[in-house]
């Protein structure tokens, strides 16, 4: 693809080349600052290597597709050889050639010329030692979903059908999402692309509405002159309609209030974690966090999540249900997207940034949906349905995740974790440590591209790679998240300053240090407590977190990001949250088994001290901890009275 504009792709399976021909200028539009006319998409893949495997289906060009097939769908291409290949684009000749990747034994990938027993022989003819595509053997090596799963899609009830709700829209036939691609590193202009999937894409014509204005193209260009909240609707010639969540732009965010201190443009300081705190309560803490000197606040998953009307483990809506995504819509258990937007703007006005715990590797298990399910051990008795955290007018059935435009074919095959020593399973089926280094780097590269080609100066991400009994497997060999991961990041992100923003979370600090010995300290974040491992002893350990943390050699520069956890006491057990949604009063099915009810307790109390009460903990309000943190940040001490906690001891 050229630097800009639409192109025609011509693939020659015999020569293995994909050539491009520019479409005449009459078929494109001229880019400009106007927000009323479609623009030419920017080409974010210029001079880049695109990784693909076999008949892999991908989108070539910027995420705002100038290149598309059919009704905006993906363009299929294939190679004449089996195994993983690199597609190399030559901008001068406008050719995309392919070459086999080097064979790496033990990486669980089927590569051209493979001779490694642990990698080959996993294809249509099981055990034949021939590396082939379209794997369908159900054994320990199966990666993709079982063939035919796409036929199980489009199960959302239609209007006038039993179980239909207006929030389901026309998900039975049309799904999609908005994609924003910022044009340059100043992020003052962006292309908005409405990516869709229609059940009958070959015969339906779609129309795209941006703020109510119809157009045939699915993308539109905006600049910082647009300060509104963008609405997007897609309609089909079959009268199907899809209304997407409102779209906001980064230039509409309030500027971070400037404060003195060794913040290093957002790359050093302490962050207060608010586990189980509703958005409305966190918003009330923004001013305090800014005055105390915190870099910002971490929220736990903010996307739409699983919720239940029946008990599980004798409790209602367990805390880890927030880690069971239903969509990426920002209507989570802790609050709506409007409340989240308000929280972010308020906190930024006081100098406090907002970070979130993002769940990207999985969605909730199949069956956690709106449908009734028959209990196979109880004849005609049916299990009650489950729901989600989003307001009723926005709910969607969650068995295919239509609000995320995801269906069965978008996931790996379903399997349990049969062995914690199995690298193939560890890398693919659970948390950050279960996403391969190659995939993690590819995700970060996509973020970089969508942010205009450079991550924001104050951006960083910390990856949860738990280092328990399986540490020897995930920190060595082909699954190495140390040197191997760093080298892949350098290949994709290019600049060391960009790689430095991709940090690792040391989950075993302070007890067992250096399970990730090859990751430099400035790319590791630490904390004493996390929501999985809460310790009742806090103050002295939290003070030491800033004055002399275990294993430190350069306290000014080692571990520049450190976390303080404010959570809740396990007064009513360790399963529910005190946000009112773990109360047995909400139960509707099998309520006799609900024995661990957790009542509503307000998280924000203006006069509350750090450790007082039996509801929420507020370690971020402990003045000795605050002043230890401020000294580390080269800030002067602050009095409790100036933070309205002078009465706390």
TrEMBL record:
Origin species: Rotaria sordida
Signal peptide: none
Name this polypeptide is given: alpha-amylase
Residues in Glycosyl hydrolase family 13 catalytic domain copies: 269-588
One GO biological process term: carbohydrate metabolic process
EC number of this enzyme: 3.2.1.1
Keyword tags: Carbohydrate metabolism, Chloride, Glycosidase, Hydrolase
Family per similarity comment: Belongs to the glycosyl hydrolase 13 family.
Catalyzed reactions per annotation: Endohydrolysis of (1->4)-alpha-D-glucosidic linkages in polysaccharides containing three or more (1->4)-alpha-linked D-glucose units
Keyword Transport recorded: no
Cofactor(s) the record lists: chloride; Ca(2+)
One MF annotation (Gene Ontology) recorded for this entry: alpha-amylase activity
């Amino acid at each position: 693809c050229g630097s800009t504009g639409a192109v025609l792709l011509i693939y020659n399976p015999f020569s293995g080349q994909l050539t491009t021909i520019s479409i005449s200028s009459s078929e494109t539009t001229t880019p400009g600052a106007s927000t009323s006319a479609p623009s030419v998409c920017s080409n974010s893949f210029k001079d880049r290597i695109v990784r693909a495997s076999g008949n892999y289906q991908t989108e070539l060009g910027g995420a705002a597709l100038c290149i598309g097939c059919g009704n905006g769908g993906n363009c299929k291409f294939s190679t004449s050889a089996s195994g993983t290949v690199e597609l190399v684009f030559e901008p001068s000749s406008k050719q995309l050639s392919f070459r086999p990747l080097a064979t790496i034994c033990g990486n669980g990938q089927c590569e051209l010329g493979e001779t490694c027993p642990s990698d080959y022989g996993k294809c249509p003819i099981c055990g034949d030692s021939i590396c082939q595509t379209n794997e369908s053997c159900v054994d320990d090596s199966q990666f993709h979903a079982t063939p035919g799963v796409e036929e199980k899609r489009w199960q959302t009830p239609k209007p006038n059908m039993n179980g239909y709700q207006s929030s389901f829209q026309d998900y039975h036939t049309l799904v999609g999402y908005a994609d924003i691609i910022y044009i340059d590193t100043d992020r003052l202009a962006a292309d908005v692309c409405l990516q869709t999937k229609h059940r009958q894409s070959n015969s339906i014509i779609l129309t795209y509405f941006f703020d109510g204005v119809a157009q045939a193209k699915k993308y539109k260009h905006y600049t910082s002159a647009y300060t509104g909240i963008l609405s997007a609707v897609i309609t089909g010639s079959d009268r199907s309609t899809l209304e997407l969540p409102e779209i906001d732009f980064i230039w509409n965010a309030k500027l971070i209030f400037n404060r003195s201190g060794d913040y290093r443009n957002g790359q050093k300081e302490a962050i207060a974690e608010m586990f189980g705190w509703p958005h409305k309560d966190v918003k009330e803490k923004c001013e305090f966090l800014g005055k105390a000197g915190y870099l910002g606040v971490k929220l736990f998953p903010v996307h739409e999540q699983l919720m239940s009307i029946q008990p599980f483990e004798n409790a209602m809506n367990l805390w880890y249900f927030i880690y069971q995504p239903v969509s990426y819509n920002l209507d989570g258990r802790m609050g709506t997207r409007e409340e989240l937007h308000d929280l972010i703007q308020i906190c930024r006005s006081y100098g406090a940034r907002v970070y979130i715990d993002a769940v990207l590797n999985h969605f909730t298990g199949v069956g956690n949906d709106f449908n009734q399910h028959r209990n196979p051990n109880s004849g005609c008795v049916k299990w009650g349905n489950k729901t989600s955290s989003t307001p009723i007018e926005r709910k969607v059935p969650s068995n295919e995740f239509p609000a995320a435009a995801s269906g069965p074919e978008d996931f790996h095959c379903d399997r349990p974790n049969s062995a914690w020593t199995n690298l193939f399973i560890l890398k693919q089926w659970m948390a950050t440590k279960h996403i391969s280094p190659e995939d993690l780097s590819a995700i970060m590269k996509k973020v970089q591209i969508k942010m205009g080609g450079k991550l924001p100066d104050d951006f960083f991400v910390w990856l949860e790679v738990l280092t328990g009994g399986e540490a020897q497997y995930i920190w060595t060999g082909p699954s190495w998240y140390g040197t191997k991961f760093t080298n892949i990041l350098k290949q994709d992100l290019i600049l060391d300053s960009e790689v430095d923003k991709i940090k690792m979370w040391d989950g075993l600090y302070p007890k067992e240090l250096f399970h990730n010995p090859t990751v430099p300290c400035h790319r590791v974040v630490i904390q004493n407590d996390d929501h999985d491992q809460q310790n009742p002893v806090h103050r002295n350990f939290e003070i030491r977190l800033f004055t002399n943390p275990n294993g430190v050699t350069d306290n000014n520069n080692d571990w520049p990001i450190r976390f303080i956890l404010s959570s809740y006491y396990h007064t009513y057990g360790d399963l529910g949250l005190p946000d009112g949604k773990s109360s047995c009063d909400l139960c509707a099915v099998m309520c006799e088994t609900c024995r661990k009810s957790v009542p509503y307790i307000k998280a924000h109390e203006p006069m509350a001290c750090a450790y007082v009460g039996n509801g929420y903990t507020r370690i971020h309000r402990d003045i000795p901890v605050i002043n230890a943190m401020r000294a580390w940040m080269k800030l002067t001490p602050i009095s409790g009275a100036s933070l309205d906690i002078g009465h706390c001891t």
